[in-house]
């Protein structure tokens, strides 16, 4: 049972094409660097002499690959990996990526980050044409559609281009083919991040630049919205914008900067650390308050807290000790234990906060339950006042593009005003960053943003496309 009312990303993708037999090990290291994007499952597929071998299962990367699994994978030169957080489909092995799909002339392995809004329609059309599905994930639909189009086009790259034209929604893809190609695709809106790196033995594609650096690749650039990149035998053989028109009102999910991405990543021209620090600066301008110390909620509130402190002149102090060893396996058998679970992960540092007026900076309030427990824990530890500052605007709408936002009736901002939320969570004051302030904080990003979870603008329904016409 999830104990925090936080947002969750659904997955990460990573792939390499090398001139040496190090693909599996580098992909494993890449997935470890991207573990924050998904903790429910992990998998790696490797191309071995025109065949594709793979291993995947539920669990963390280190749990899925904890022993002899590597022995069953070759020391191939092309591999793709995936870490999963489920937005569609149950959390079971069959729904973990990469998805391996066979077709008449070969095999592909597909790792997908995003959410396909017309997946049910595509699944229905493919089933009518005799395709069989083993899982309930939209990522399996993506892989099956690509394999179908490759068969029709009799060309791997053209098949990927054709399939991508039918996909609606968010998709950053890394595909390994049996004919020794590594293919990267980003949807025309650029909802989800994807970047490319290079070193002396080949290329890597990753959801975030932090994974490239951790694996010894130099970051080259982001994959552009609508772009397809092809790497063969460790060499870049194709790069270009090939896909269709973007949907108006959409762009990169702005929550990549607020919460999802690691602070040492750079996405679409903007450092995640810099963006979050700027958010704190804007919060201090928009919601100043007299206080003794500024504290960030670990981990996603720390950078914004540093920005608030720098702008306001109020000292930045550690307010919590975080238990990093509970992990996924800690069990909460009763409701009362689940209610107190926040204390097990975040314990107030009484020496620093007792008798103090605190500015508490966090990334979001979804249902309000976690914020309420954190504020209460600070006051129980002796805090004189707790002034909450949030580095995202109030959530009012669910997301169709892969961000796991609770149903709209459960979003606290939809049935309480700011003062009522303040009273509910027990804060002495409450301030959310404005949408304009958030965009200003992320102004160096080279892409437009999707902010429809805050505004409701830009939402669109899938348009049916007949893939058999």
UniProtKB/TrEMBL annotation:
<feature type="binding site">
    <location>
        <position position="362"/>
    </location>
    <ligand>
        <name>Mg(2+)</name>
    </ligand>
</feature>
<dbReference type="InterPro" id="IPR000836">
    <property type="entry name" value="PRTase_dom"/>
</dbReference>
<dbReference type="GO" id="GO:0004044">
    <property type="term" value="F:amidophosphoribosyltransferase activity"/>
</dbReference>
<comment type="pathway">
    <text>Purine metabolism; IMP biosynthesis via de novo pathway; N(1)-(5-phospho-D-ribosyl)glycinamide from 5-phospho-alpha-D-ribose 1-diphosphate: step 1/2.</text>
</comment>
<keyword id="KW-0479">Metal-binding</keyword>
<comment type="similarity">
    <text>In the C-terminal section; belongs to the purine/pyrimidine phosphoribosyltransferase family.</text>
</comment>
<protein>
    <recommendedName>
        <fullName>Amidophosphoribosyltransferase</fullName>
        <ecNumber>2.4.2.14</ecNumber>
    </recommendedName>
</protein>
<dbReference type="InterPro" id="IPR029057">
    <property type="entry name" value="PRTase-like"/>
</dbReference>
<feature type="domain" description="Glutamine amidotransferase type-2">
    <location>
        <begin position="11"/>
        <end position="234"/>
    </location>
</feature>
<feature type="binding site">
    <location>
        <position position="300"/>
    </location>
    <ligand>
        <name>Mg(2+)</name>
    </ligand>
</feature>
<dbReference type="Pfam" id="PF13522">
    <property type="entry name" value="GATase_6"/>
</dbReference>
<dbReference type="Pfam" id="PF00156">
    <property type="entry name" value="Pribosyltran"/>
</dbReference>
<keyword id="KW-0315">Glutamine amidotransferase</keyword>
<keyword id="KW-0328">Glycosyltransferase</keyword>
<dbReference type="InterPro" id="IPR005854">
    <property type="entry name" value="PurF"/>
</dbReference>
<keyword id="KW-0808">Transferase</keyword>
<dbReference type="InterPro" id="IPR029055">
    <property type="entry name" value="Ntn_hydrolases_N"/>
</dbReference>
<keyword id="KW-0460">Magnesium</keyword>
<feature type="binding site">
    <location>
        <position position="453"/>
    </location>
    <ligand>
        <name>[4Fe-4S] cluster</name>
    </ligand>
</feature>
<feature type="binding site">
    <location>
        <position position="253"/>
    </location>
    <ligand>
        <name>[4Fe-4S] cluster</name>
    </ligand>
</feature>
<dbReference type="InterPro" id="IPR035584">
    <property type="entry name" value="PurF_N"/>
</dbReference>
<feature type="binding site">
    <location>
        <position position="399"/>
    </location>
    <ligand>
        <name>[4Fe-4S] cluster</name>
    </ligand>
</feature>
<keyword id="KW-0411">Iron-sulfur</keyword>
<feature type="binding site">
    <location>
        <position position="363"/>
    </location>
    <ligand>
        <name>Mg(2+)</name>
    </ligand>
</feature>
<feature type="active site" description="Nucleophile">
    <location>
        <position position="11"/>
    </location>
</feature>
<feature type="binding site">
    <location>
        <position position="450"/>
    </location>
    <ligand>
        <name>[4Fe-4S] cluster</name>
    </ligand>
</feature>
<keyword id="KW-0658">Purine biosynthesis</keyword>
<keyword id="KW-0408">Iron</keyword>
<comment type="function">
    <text>Catalyzes the formation of phosphoribosylamine from phosphoribosylpyrophosphate (PRPP) and glutamine.</text>
</comment>
<keyword id="KW-0004">4Fe-4S</keyword>
<dbReference type="InterPro" id="IPR017932">
    <property type="entry name" value="GATase_2_dom"/>
</dbReference>
